[in-house]
Fold this protein.
Amino acid sequence: MAITIIFESDEWSNRYLRDYIAGKGYEINFINFEAEDFDDDWLENTDLVVNRIFPSSYFRDHKKTYFQGYELMDNLKARGIPMINSYQAFLYDFDKALVCNALAGQDIKVPQVYCSKDFIIDGIKFPCIIKPNRGGRSTYTYVANNKKELENITKTLPEVEFIFQEYIKSIDNYTLRIEVIDGKVFSAVKRSMDESGISSYHRGAEYEHINILDDCISGLVIKVLEVLDIKMGGIDVIESENGPYIIDVNATSNYSKKFVDFLGKNPLDKMGDLIIDEYKK
C-alpha cells in the first residue's frame, strides 16, 4: 500500500517531499488533482493521503481545485482514508474567517473580522486589510486607510469571497513566520513589510533569522496548531503594542529552495519523517 501525495501545483517542495519519502523505500502515488480525473485505482492502493492542495489555487487559474477541492476531501473522508494534515485542517486552510473564529474562541488574539460575505462598509474601522477568505501568496491582499481607498479596492476584486479585517500594526514593521512540525517549533524568521504594510515573500520581503524565539510566542504557535488539528504548518505572527496576534495560519506550507537554503536546514525532511511515522501507525 502506498502514500499518496495529492497536489495541484508543480512546486519544488512537492517534488522534494515525494523524492525524500520514496528514497526511504516507500511507495508513492503522486497525483495532480488539477490535471487528472478522480481515479479509484490509486485510492484502492492508498493507506495515507498527504494533502498538498494550496488555498491560492483560484488565483493561479487552478479553478477545478478551487471549486472541487471540498468534494475531493469529502470523498476521501467518506472512504476512511487517513490524511495529513487532517480533514479538519483542510477546512481551516480554506477558510480564514473560520480560523479567526476558532482561535478567538480559545482566547487567542486574532484580527477582528468586520465582515466577509456581507460587505458593510459602515462597520469597518480603518486601516483595514482586505484578503481572499480562501487564498494565499498575498494575491489580492490590500490595506485600505480610509473609506475611499476601500471603495476603490473593492471595484478591482474578483467574484470570490473576501474578508475585511482589523489591521494589526507591527511594533517593528516585521511579521514573524514560524514553522511548527509535530508539536515543536522547527524554525522562526522575521519578514519585512512593504510600504503598504504587507509582509510577503511574493512581494520581495527580506528575511532575518530569529536565533532565540520568545517562549511565550513559541507556546502560542504550538497551541494554535493544536486547536486547528494541524501537525505541520506555518504561522504568521505580528508583535503589536497589545501583544502577539495570529494573522495567518498555513496548513500546507510551501517552501522554495532559496528559502530552505536561507534557513540552513530543511523542514521538508522533518515533514517527510512525520508523514512516514503517520503511515506506519
